[in-house]
Amino acid sequence: MHSIPQAMTWEFLRRGGWWFLAAMLFMISFPALVLGSLQRDGALNPQEPAIGSLHFVLSLSQQLAFSIVVFHAHGYPGRLYAWPVPTPTLVLWQLVPGMGALLLMTLATTGFINLLFGVGWPLWGPALFIAASWPAYQAVVWLTYRRPFRMMAGLALVGFGLGLWITYRYGGAFGSPRQMWQEVTPGECLALAAVVVVAYWAAVIGVARDRRGDANGSSRLSEWIDGLEASGRAATRPLGTPARAQLWSEWQQKGWIMPILEIMLMLIALGIWLWNGLPMNDLHEGLIGVGMFIPIIGVIIGLVIGSTAPGDGKTGMVPFLATRPLTDPALAGAILRTVAGSVLLTWVCWSAVRGLALC
Fold first, then answer.
1. 167 and 252, same structural domain?
2. Given 47, 51, 282, 338, which is the most exposed site by the fewest CB atoms within 10 A?
3. DSSP string covering 174-214, please?
C-alpha cells in the first residue's frame, strides 16, 4: 500500500468481505417474500399504502443492518492510535469507506427490488440519508466511548432528530407514508452535507480526546453519571461458579444490546409521535413497525452475541476464551442463555409499551 488511507480502505473491505453480501441478501429476502407472495396472488399494487409502508420499514432496516455490518468491518479506531497518522485523517478514513459502502449497498438492494417487482421505490434519497446518518451515529459513539448511559442518550437524541427529518420527506407521516421521496432537492443535499460536516467535527473531538486519554468532563453531573455507570458495571456479589461468572460476563458485554436498541427505537417513535401531535392510531402503527424490527435486530445481534473474538472481525473462539475453567457445554450454555434472555427481555419491553399504548 502506498498510503495509510489506501491501507485503511483495503483493511475495511477485507474485514467486511462476505458480510456486505450477506447483509444485502438478507435485506432483499425480507421484502421479496412479501412482494413475491402478493405478485403470485395478483394483488401487488405499488400504489397501495401498505407497499409504501414496507419500503419505509425496509429503509430503516437497511440503515440498522448495514450500519452494524460496516461498524463490524471498521472496528473501533483505538486499535489504530499507534499508527503515524493525524487524528483528522484517521477519522476521515474511518468514515468515508463506510459511507460509500452504505450508499452502494442501499442502492443495490432497493434497485434489485425495483427490478424484480417494479414497485418504483425511491433510490437516491434513502441511500444518501443512510450514508449521511452513519457519521452522526459514529460521532456519538466516539464522543461517549466507555460511557454507556451517555451513549444511549446521545444515540436516542440523534435518532430522534434524523427520524423526524426523514418522516417529513415522506409527508410527515408516522404510519403509512403519504408520499414517496422520489426527488432529492438541493436543500436536502445541503442539509445532509451539514450533518456529515458537523458529525466529522464531533468525531474528531471524540477520537482525539480518547487518543490522549482525556476524561469526558469533570462537572458534578458528569461525576454522578460516571458513578452510575461504574456501579452498573460492578458485580453485586461474588459469583459461585465459573459458569455463572461466564454468564455474567456474556450478559454484561452483549445481553443488553438488543433490548437497548429496541427501547431506543420505541423512544424515537414516541418522540416523533408527540412532536407531530398525531392521533393514537398512528402511535399504534408506529409501535407495530418497531415490533417488526425485533426479528431483524435478532438476526444481526445474534451474530454479535455468538462472536467470541475480541472485536477483530472474526467469529471463531479465541484461545484466551477457550482456556477458561469451564466445559464446552457450559460455555455454549452461557452464550445461548444470553441470547434467550436478550430476546425475551426485548419482547417484554415492546409488549409492555404496546400494552400501555392500547390502554
1. no
2. 47
3. SSS-SS------HHHHHHHHHHHHHHHHHHHHHHHHHHHT-
At 65-84, the pLDDT tens digits run 888 888 878 877 877 888 78
Task: Give yes or no for a contact between 32 and 66, defined as CB atoms under 8 angstroms apart.
Answer: no
Residue 314 has pLDDT above 50, yes or no: no
Domain holding 325, by residue range, is: 241-359
Q: Per the structure, how many domains does the chain have?
A: 2
Q: Write out 259-277 in H/E/C secondary structure.
A: HHHHHHHHHHHHHHHHHHC
Contact by Cβ (8 Å): 105, 66: yes
Sign, CA dihedral 349-140-158-191, equals negative
Label residues 74-89 b or e (16+ Cβ within 10 Å = b). Answer: bbebeebeeeebebee
The secondary structure of residue 318, as a DSSP letter, is P
pLDDT tier at 1, thresholds 50, 70, 90: low
Domain stop point among 160, 193, 222: 222
> Cβ distance 248 to 139 under 8 Å?
no
Full-prediction pTM beyond 0.90?
no
C-alpha 62/C-alpha 133 separation (Å) is 12
59 with 178, same domain: the answer is: yes
Q: CA dihedral in degrees (151, 214, 135, 148; nearest 10)?
A: -10
Does residue 233 lie within any of the structural domains?
no
Residue 286 CA to residue 292 CA, distance in Å, equals 10
